């Protein structure tokens, strides 16, 4: 006899005749037996990752033999003393729908199982805002997307929903960023796409760090963090990586292709230590990858958009940019122009921008280019690469220039410069010269340059593919057209130092570098014309 185990259409269970007879003979209710219980990730309508081993796990009676069947695979495991069991399916080919059977003393049958690509979408509120809050017609956008499936991991560990097939009737349940990211993948790849969403609004990056990552952070008072005392080094209600333990850890080791992340707004407050964001973001990525055990798992994230604010939004954007630069296999979707400009929200005063379509598109572009091999001229907006100074003019080179750079508004603005040992930036002139940007200010020395350094900046630099350049702050990282005799290695005015060829110049004899501390410095090169012989 087959029964609907959860009183929902996504999973059915049948008992063996022996167990049924025992139930009658002993007058015991069906609920008296633990039975085969797969982890809640495994339901009908789910998507499994293709091209790699696929763990399947759950609970049963201690010592019970569990058999998992799908397609032509049959795998067996024995439940341990705690009732836990786990098997690994061999790599599955793209396709479906399939049926998965999980059998022990009774059987669970999962229907409409697809095999394709699976992504985890995580972060805070801009990853949870639903399609119902966007300005798109959800019922129209969701037509023909049956290959897109959603699993929602709630903040309450017990409040988990099954896999949902995308349709005009269900699409409003999909978080908008995740929907558009998944839709662009599904439309481009023509294969099943599974999206697992584990995101909670108004949360700090520290709350998402793994336990080991928190233990490794010297600035976090772990005794307070894990006991729930005061703030343990950071504010927030989920002390000691509570969101990692409640949201992320239960998903491991479900096989996924990569992670899409949208978070950072809550870390812009001064008491949230925005200056530590870069290190903790990098540590979060490292910690998740270590726990998942899939190597350098692709980790793509959204740089904070424009938003009218007086706090540390530029600093968090810079921390995100430097994380993308320093952590391998990461990509950044630039959203500096997506804070407004949609019906009802013409400016950037909305903390939750309604245009999630372009956010999803910009997350999908590097995935399509780097993971799925699509020929895309520019999978990102321009990213600062290097700078050199000649005749008091800064020349900036960029990656991802595509078919060329352009000033979207016709006038290239948002560039500022500062002089040697000066933290005060002033507006500067800028123009496009081929695939470079030239920056200058009449009568001023140029040693530091920054772009779009404001919470709601003038951000007019784009590539011709229509993608904006990322805001950045930089120091002189490459100098051409000068030699040793043209450079004064004194980085503290009035305290000349002796030239040290072996330590202060590169082998070409051109660069003088003083490594700098702090979360945002890439290395500083101070220059001053020499006026007397050495």
Any overview of this molecule?
There is one protein chain. With 534 residues, the protein is α+β, with helices and mostly antiparallel strands. It contains 10 helices and 26 strands. The chain has helices spanning 17-26, 138-141, 176-189, 211-216, 222-227, 242-248, 277-292, 313-326, 356-371, 501-504; strands spanning 2-3, 12-15, 37-38, 47-49, 54-59, 65-70, 73-78, 84-89, 95-103, 106-123, 148-152, 164-165, 193-199, 258-262, 299-302, 330-333, 383-390, 393-399, 405-407, 415-418, 426-427, 429-433, 436-440, 448-451, 461-463, 472-475. The strands form 5 sheets. Strands 1, 2, 4, 6, 7, 9, 10, 11, 12, 13, 14, 15 and 16 form a 13-stranded mixed sheet that branches. Strands 17-18-23-22 form a 4-stranded antiparallel sheet, with no helix packed on it. The chain has a 4-stranded antiparallel sheet with strand order 21-20-24-26. The N and C termini lie far apart (96 Å). The model is unreliable at 1-10, 15-33, 155-160, 228-238 and 477-534 (pLDDT under 50).
What's the helix and strand layout?
Blueprint: E1 2-3, E2 12-15, H1 17-26, E3 37-38, E4 47-49, E5 54-59, E6 65-70, E7 73-78, E8 84-89, E9 95-103, E10 106-123, H2 138-141, E11 148-152, E12 164-165, H3 176-189, E13 193-199, H4 211-216, H5 222-227, H6 242-248, E14 258-262, H7 277-292, E15 299-302, H8 313-326, E16 330-333, H9 356-371, E17 383-390, E18 393-399, E19 405-407, E20 415-418, E21 426-427, E22 429-433, E23 436-440, E24 448-451, E25 461-463, E26 472-475, H10 501-504
Parallel strand pairs: 4-10, 10-13, 10-14, 11-13, 14-15, 15-16
Antiparallel strand pairs: 1-2, 2-10, 3-5, 5-8, 6-7, 6-9, 9-10, 11-12, 17-18, 18-23, 19-25, 20-21, 20-24, 22-23, 24-26
Helix pairs in contact: 3-9, 7-8
């Amino acid at each position: 006899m087959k029964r609907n185990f959860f009183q929902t259409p996504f999973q059915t269970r049948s008992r063996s005749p022996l167990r049924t007879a025992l139930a009658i003979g002993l007058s015991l209710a069906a609920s008296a037996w633990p039975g085969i219980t797969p982890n809640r990730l495994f339901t009908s309508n789910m998507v499994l990752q293709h091209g790699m081993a696929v763990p399947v796990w759950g609970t049963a009676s201690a010592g019970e033999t569990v058999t998992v069947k799908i397609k032509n695979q049959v795998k067996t495991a024995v439940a341990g003393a705690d009732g836990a069991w786990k098997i690994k399916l061999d790599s599955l080919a793209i396709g479906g729908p399939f049926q998965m059977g999980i059998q022990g003393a009774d059987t669970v049958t999962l229907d409409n199982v697809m095999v394709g690509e699976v992504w985890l979408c995580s972060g805070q509120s801009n990853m949870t805002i639903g399609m119902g809050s966007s300005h798109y017609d959800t019922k129209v956008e969701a037509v023909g997307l049956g290959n897109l499936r959603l699993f929602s991991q709630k903040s309450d560990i017990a409040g988990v929903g099954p896999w949902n097939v995308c349709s005009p009737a269900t699409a409003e349940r999909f978080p908008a960023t995740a929907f558009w990211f998944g839709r662009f993948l599904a439309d481009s790849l023509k294969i099943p796409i599974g999206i697992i969403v584990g995101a909670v609004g108004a949360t700090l990056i520290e709350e998402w760090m793994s336990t080991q990552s928190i233990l490794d952070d010297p600035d976090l008072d772990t005794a307070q963090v894990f006991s729930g005392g005061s703030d343990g080094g950071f504010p927030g209600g989920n002390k000691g990586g509570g969101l990692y333990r409640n949201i992320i850890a239960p998903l491991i080791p479900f096989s996924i292709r990569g992670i899409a992340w949208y978070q950072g707004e809550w870390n812009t407050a001064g008491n949230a230590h925005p200056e530590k964001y870069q290190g903790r973001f990098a540590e979060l990525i490292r910690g998740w990858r270590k726990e998942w055990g899939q190597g350098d798992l692709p980790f793509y994230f959204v740089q904070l958009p424009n938003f009218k604010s007086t706090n540390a939004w530029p600093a968090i954007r810079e921390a995100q940019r430097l994380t993308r630069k320093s952590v391998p296999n990461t990509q950044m979707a630039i959203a500096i122009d997506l804070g407004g400009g949609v019906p009802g929200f013409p400016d950037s005063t909305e903390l939750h921008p309604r245009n999630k379509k372009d956010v999803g598109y910009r997350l999908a572009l590097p995935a399509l280019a780097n993971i799925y091999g699509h020929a895309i001229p520019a999978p990102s907006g321009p990213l600062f690469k290097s700078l050199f100074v000649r005749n008091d003019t800064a020349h900036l080179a960029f990656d991802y220039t595509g078919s060329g750079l352009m000033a979207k508004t016709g006038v290239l603005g948002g560039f500022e410069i500062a002089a040697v040992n000066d933290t005060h930036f002033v507006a500067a002139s800028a123009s496009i010269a081929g695939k470079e940007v030239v920056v200058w200010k009449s009568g001023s020395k140029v040693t530091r340059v920054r772009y779009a350094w404001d919470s709601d900046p003038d951000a007019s630099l784009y590539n011709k593919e229509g993608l904006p350049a990322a805001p950045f702050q930089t120091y002189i990282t490459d100098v051409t057209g000068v030699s040793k005799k043209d450079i004064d290695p004194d980085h503290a005015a009035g305290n000349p130092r002796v030239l040290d060829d072996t330590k202060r110049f590169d082998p070409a004899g051109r660069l003088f570098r003083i490594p700098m501390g702090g979360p945002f410095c890439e290395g500083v090169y101070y220059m001053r014309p020499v006026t007397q012989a050495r």
